[in-house]
Every structure is written in structure tokens, then in C-alpha cells.
Amino acid sequence: MTNEKKVEWLLRIGVAGEFAGHGLLAVQGKADWIGWISQMIHVDTATATTLLLIIGITDVIMAIIVLVKPIRILLLWMALWGFWTALLRPLVGQSVLDFVERSANWAAPLALYYFYRSRQ
User: Of 10, 17, 62, 116, which has the maximum CB count within 10 A?
Assistant: First the structure.
């Protein structure tokens, strides 16, 4: 296996792991996240729970796509989504360091996007 393939697979596994992990936590109905959704878009707990379930399923699907056949536009979406969800931390009152700590959530999908773009 070439070094280029190794880098590609390390990025794919990292991105998939991040999205699968967060997606499965969302599917389980992580209480903090339900509260944040309710707070951010002013919906009741039941609606926030349903939205979180949809988000979680979507994240898991994205993780599978990255492992099976990455699609560049979806990698950009994942980078944007990762940035937004990291940025939510300080927006809901957590430290800005909680955003900094999650830099890989958006940087890894963006790196994989540019990896594929450079191979055109």
C-alpha cells in the first residue's frame, strides 16, 4: 500500500469514526444535545429529541459513505456540520476551548476533501 493510500485511509477512518461516534450518541438521545437543540431553535423536548434522532441517523449514514465511497460534496457538508457543532459549544455557554478541542471534527473532513481534490 502506498503512503498516499495510507493517508487516505487514515483520514477516512478518522472522519468515519468521528461521525459514527457522534451519530450513535445522538441516536441514543444524549440529554445535553436535546437541551441545546431546544435552546437554539426554541422547540419542546419531544421535537428536539426527534430532530436529534434524525441528525444521528444522518451522521451514521455519512460515516458509512466515507468508508464505502467518499463523495466530495458530502465531505464539505461534513466539514461545515463539524464546524457548526463545534461552534455550538461556546454558543450554549461552554468554553471556547470546547470549540478548539473539536477542531478535528471539521478539519479532518476538509483535509479529506482537499486530498481528493488534489488528485484530479
Answer: 62
Number of domains present in the structure of the chain: 1
Mean pLDDT of 17-27: 97
CB-count burial class (<10 Å; 0-12, 13-18, 19+) for 32: exposed
pTM of the model: 0.92
Q: What's the rounded Cα separation, in Å, for the pair 103 and 105? A: 5
Q: Fill in the amino acid letter for 71.
A: I
Compute the average pLDDT of residues 11-28.
97
Cβ atoms within 10 Å of 23's Cβ, excluding its own: 20
